[in-house]
Amino acid sequence: MKSNNLIYVAGHNGMVGSAIVRNLKQQGYTNLIMKSSSDLDLRDKQATEDFFAQHKPKYVFLAAAKVGGIIANDNYGADFISQNLAIQSNVIESSHQFGVKKLLFLGSSCIYPKLASQPMKEEALLTGELEPTNLPYAIAKIAGKIMCDAYYKQYDFDAFTVMPPNVYGVGDNFHPENSHVIAGLMYRFHQAKINKQDKITCWGTGSPFREFIYADDLGDACVFLMKNYSKGGMINAGSGEEISIKQLAKTIAQIVGFEGELIWDTSKPDGTPKKLMDNSKINQLGWKSTTPLKEGLEAMYQWYLKSLQQ
Ligand SMILES: NC(=O)c1ccc[n+]([C@@H]2O[C@H](COP(=O)([O-])OP(=O)(O)OC[C@H]3O[C@@H](n4cnc5c(N)ncnc54)[C@H](OP(=O)(O)O)[C@@H]3O)[C@@H](O)[C@H]2O)c1
Predict the structure, then answer these.
(1) Is 282 in the pocket of ligand 1 (CB under 6 A)?
(2) What is each CA distance from 274 to 6, 141, 206, 308, in whole angstroms?
């Protein structure tokens, strides 16, 4: 990837897309093209084709998607499957048609089978039943991954999929219903601190283990892979560290300064007991994540506090 090549980051306003943009700029890639969904709705095939025909980007990071937590996935499954299928199929097809050299598609560790053996290797995809709560989203993401593979095989189009675990960091979504676990807990603990609550109830037993990656580490992994990986298929990009939800909640409470009691509502579902990815493939290529969880959470909370003042 040359510094003067035109690079399109789809979804640049989002948490992952904005981290990719920061990383590209840091590395001297300044010939970037970005469009908000209000200027270019990627569900619109004709508009997407017109954009690619006009600008002819050389590299594409596909980080535009409809994304949300458990509640949003449960309530809006139709939107998750239809919008993601449309966005990714329009972008992948147009990229191929208008001469893109390489395309990176963002997958997600939540598309691995619910009970995949741990740590999850890339080969575990499609070897077992999926988590039912986000099935429409997962099926759309799997379709995107298979579409990249098929274009790679049939047309020799250099498209591949990156599989991150849960992402957190600057630019995260703190919406009370649509957020993921870290932003959701941070938001609730912050509110509880302000309202001087003495306790807060969290879902489940707190016993499941999860892996998280700081958004800027993922941005770095994506740019690294765009420069160094051309084998198609998919590749995990995680931190390699896991933490129980209970420990995570305690750490966030400490960072936020919420000193009340954490109560665990064990009548609520826990989800998959363990979800850690095998990151040996990307590690062997020479990439490792560098931000410890606590450091990333602190940076995220500072950013959140600043965003409240704007
Ligand atoms: N967040 C996670 O924990 C996580 C974990 C694993 C994988 N991923 C993957 O990483 C990618 C990015 O996720 P994220 O967390 O950065 O999501 P995000 O913060 O919600 O950002 C998604 C972006 O997609 C854009 N977008 C949505 N619909 C669009 C449309 N119809 N046309 C054009 N742009 C559209 C939005 O652009 P506008 O702001 O301009 O509307 C938004 O900024 C997704 O593929 C997701 O599956 C995320």
Answers:
(1) no
(2) 40, 21, 12, 34
